[in-house]
Amino acid sequence: MKKFLSVLLSVFVLALTSATAAFAVPSSAPNTANIANEDFYRNNPYRGTVLNVYNWGEYISDGGEGSLDVNRKFEELTGIKVNYTNFDSNEDMYAKLKSGGANYDLVIPSDYMIERLIAEGLLEKLDYSHIPNFSLIDDKYKGLYYDPKDEYTVAYNVGYVALIYNKTLVDETPDSWDILWDKKYEGQVLMFNNPRDAFAIAQSLLGQDYNNTDPALWAEAYDKLLEQKPVVRAYVMDEVYNIMESGAAAMAPYYVGDYYTMAENNDDLAVAFPKEGANIFVDAMCIPTTCQNKGAAELYINFMEEPDVALANAEYIAYATPNTEVLKMDRYSYKDDPILYPDDAIFENYQYFHNMPSETQSLMSNYWSDLKVDGSSNRSVYIGLIAFVGAVAAYGIFHFARRKYREKYYD
Questions:
Q1: Considering only Cβ atoms within 10 Å of each terminal Cβ, which end of the chain, N or C, has fewer?
Q2: How far are the Cα atoms of 200, 209, 216, 379, 381 from residue 386, in angstroms, in the given order?
Q3: pLDDT tens, residue by residue, 92-102
Q4: How many distinct structural domains can be found in the chain?
Q5: Are 288 and 122 spatial neighbours (Cβ–Cβ below 8 Å)?
């Protein structure tokens, strides 16, 4: 799951790891998975090589709690060493790839970041003849906006935002995001502590496109968040688990898959899908242009979509799987789950995040900083700057076009 470890937990784990390193033993978790064509993996030409994988933390079945250790199983079958590291955000992953400071063979970013990576020439096209399990991906997660021709990616997981609420603290079954603005729940409302997700909630209520570039619309969304601020107990990310599990807050917008982690510790929690919609996202496997072991990366992508492997990941992560074989399995504990797999009508108003122009990104970030500090806004300055940048860009494009036309004319 896309969870950040707290500083305290990180320090504890580091200390514990250092103290027990000398006594470490290999994982004893069962490492069995039914792979239909093991020879496909055993007879690969990449034995003895290293595969560098860069993924979200807590986002793969790792042998914990008796689960399949996916990376270890891949190593046993293929003889390829997996060097597996984690990132905390799409932006951190992007910075690493952009700097060229690390040569990753496989990354698993989110949709809007994939769009950006493709636009900047940072991803390799895949050879799908090496990835026969691509056929197992549900068609609704193929040909999406970030990779319309299915040239660069294979879907890994699907997630979306909904409202998690405490049935003993909320009087009604919520059907709208406007409950997050209800003064009756002052001090009991949690809100996303990241601008894109928080603004999307306000934009949903206002009927806006999440990816619009109109400064006036972003100002409206800022006003909506400012209106909500007196009701909000805290802006949170990973802190949401402890607060909602303990019953210290009544409601929070969050990622649906993470509801199950909270519900394990609090039976009073439930999920609502507001009628205004929310964000849906796809994380997908892709190969950076800096890769050193493309063939092994494609083999790994195919392995991740082996039905038993995809099942292990779907159970461990508790996000929706795009793998159609997993969805048919009676042993899949989330099969036909009404929260992970609600009726398609639920998604009529759901929207994907797209990669936004830098000017819009800056505008959103500035509004967010104002909101978090004191609620004051320098909107006239921001909008003026956007207009100025737009005018300069238009002027430059006009003169560039004139120059190219002249070059063509005189050639």
A1: C
A2: 21, 19, 11, 10, 9
A3: 999 999 998 78
A4: 2
A5: yes
Q: Which of 257, 279, 301 is the last residue of a domain?
A: 279
pLDDT in tens, 171-215: 999 999 999 999 999 999 999 999 999 999 999 999 999 999 999
**How far apart (Å, rounded) are the C-alpha atoms in residues 215 and 213?**
6
The closest alpha carbon to 7, from 316, 239, 246, belongs to 239
Exposed e or buried b for every residue in 251-277, given b needs 16+ CB within 10 A? bbbbbbbbbbbbbeeeeebbbbbbebb
Task: For the chain, give the number of residues.
Answer: 411
Exposure string for 283-300, b = 16+ CB within 10 A, e = fewer = bbbbbbebbebbbbbbbb
Q: Are residues 63 and 22 in the same domain?
A: yes
Distance CA 165, CA 393 (A): 46
Candidates 255, 280, 411; CA nearest to 347 is 280
| pTM: predicted TM-score of the whole model, two decimal places | 0.83
The percent of the chain in helix, strand and coil, each rounded to the nearest 5, is: 50, 15, 35
Domain that holds residue 313: 7-152+283-341
Residue 163: phi and psi, rounded to 5, are -100, 120
Say yes or no: 41 and 73 in one domain: yes
Per-residue pLDDT reduced to its tens digit, 379-392: 545 555 555 545 44
Bridge partners, residue 52, by sequence: 83
Label residue 211 exposed, middle or buried (CB < 10 Å: 0-12, 13-18, 19+).
Answer: middle
Give yes or no: residues 17 and 145 share one domain: yes
What is the distance between the terminal CA atoms of the chain, rounded to a whole angstrom? 57
Q: Which residues of 316-354 are buried (b: 16+ CB within 10 A; e: fewer)?
A: bbbbbbbbebbbeeeebebeeeebbebeeebeeebbbbe
